[in-house]
Amino acid sequence: MKSPWRLRDYVFAAFMTIGMVIAVFIVGPFAPPGLQLLFWAPLGGIFLTLGMARLQRRGSVALMILPLAVLLGLISPIISLYLAVTVLVTELVMFFLGNYRRKINRLWGNVLFFASANLGGLLLGAYLIKGSRADPFVKIATQPGVLILLTVLAGMAGIVGWWLGESAVKQLQRAGKMDVDV
Amino acid sequence: MRKRNFLTQINPLLKIIVCITILFVALLLHDIKAISVLVITLLTLVLVSVRINLKIFAYVAIALLIFMAISTWLRDFHISVISSLRLFAILLPTPLLASTTSPSDLVRAIQAARLPNFIVLSLMLIWRFLPVIQQEAQRIIEANWLRGINVVRQPRQWFSGLLMPLIFRIVAYADDVTVGLETRGYDPQAPRSNSQPLRWQLKDTIFAVSAAAIVIVVGYLEWVA
Fold first, then answer.
1. Burial of residue B138, with CB atoms counted within 10 A of its CB: 0-12 exposed, 13-18 middle, 19 or more buried
2. CA-CA distances (angstroms) from residue A142 to A125, A145, A167?
3. What residues 33-62 of chain A have any CB closer than 8 A to a CB of chain B?
4. Is pLDDT above 70 for A132?
5. Alpha helix positions (H), chain A
6. pLDDT confidence of B214, banded at 50, 70, 90?
7. B32 CB near a chain A CB, below 8 Å?
8. What distance in Å separates the CA atoms of residue A150 and residue A140, rounded to the nearest whole number?
9. Which residues of chain A have a CB within 8 Å of the CB of B171?
10. B111 or B123: which carries more pLDDT confidence?
11. Sign (positive/negative) of CA torsion A17, A18, A24, A27?
12. Total Cβ atoms within 10 A of residue A155
């Protein structure tokens, strides 16, 4: 079967991944421990939305996040596993919703990605990490109320990222740098 | 020019496997002697193989001291020492791997691991352009300083003052790189050739045996002794 992806898609996805990594560096010093994802989502969501808007097909999120998962596997294989699960959840739901051509689908993509990343991160932290370092994760994971609240907050942070991303798409279109119909 | 030391010449795939093994072992250790042996070995290798900037060394030392102080205050000194050593054992393999492996060696290792072509291409681009885009971000911050705006301290300005210019630069780089690869006839679907395929050498055997010996000693101290 011929791949629907072209070279420009791969390159664009890789550069959006770089954008997301840079967003981590920008937010990193300001984010309190344990809430990094909530702080990262509004900035990381911009690049995720841009990638979805340009690539448009199913699998766009996987194309941007899987290389990151492989790269971060050098720091900890748990991070790779966590990102792979997050991508799987997002793409599986998006498979039934359609592609990323419509704004509403990109919004769903962002919400799903960041909410599942937050939930998956906390659950994996609680059950995979051994010893005293898992304590903060266990405390949150064993309180359903807090777990749901943090997941909803992560989804909302994803909405902020989507909103900023869509305004970036608009500006890029105006400047003639985004040559796709969105 | 990269200094050709022993670690630079080791099979990059082997180095990645050893690093992942060390990470797993470090996460399992609780005995202070066992973690100390692992950290001392890694630290010696880092000091011998990596040229460390004194400023970075000072930052790391201060961060570690703060971490230990907070950890001692929250729990006790013994746990804080173990946590700090474990943190060291988890963090040290990364600079060791990164500074003794050239980007081309890393790509060869990823190709040898039979990863899909799009992941190899993406990793290659991330490895190559992450520092370039970081420099672009720094230039944008400095340009804002010249206009009297300290973007770093004003989160409100992040989107319009830092991220939008950065997005434009990233999109421009993506387009330029695509054109560059297309004009060189790069096809992500085509099978890749390699002028220097990875080979197993005597040095790799020595490195693998030494790494296994260290892991065995650490395991003995943790679970047997």
1. exposed
2. 12, 9, 38
3. 43, 46-47, 50
4. no
5. 7-27, 36-55, 60-72, 77-97, 103-128, 135-141, 144-174
6. very high
7. no
8. 9
9. 12, 15, 50, 172, 177-178
10. B123
11. negative
12. 19
Across A8-12, B57-61, B123-127, B137-141, least confident range:
B57-61
Following DSSP, what letter does each residue of B173-212 receive, concatenated?
A: HHHHHHHHHHHTT--TTSPPP-SS-----HHHHHHHHHHH
Cβ of B90 within 8 Å of Cβ of A17? The answer is no
Nearest to A164 by CA among A5, A18, A49: A49
Distances (CA, A) of B204 to A1, A166, B7, B165, B210: 39, 50, 9, 46, 10
B129's CB contacts (< 8 A; 6+ apart) are A14, A15, A18, B173, B177
Tokens coding A38: 């909530």
pLDDT tens, position by position, A77-99? 777 888 888 899 888 888 888 88
Distance (Å) of CA A124 to CA A9, A101, A147, B86: 31, 32, 13, 20
Residues in chain A with CB shorter than 8 Å from the CB of B97 are 74
**0.90 surpassed by complex ipTM:** no
A150 burial type by CB count under 10 A (0-12 exposed, 13-18 middle, 19+ buried): buried
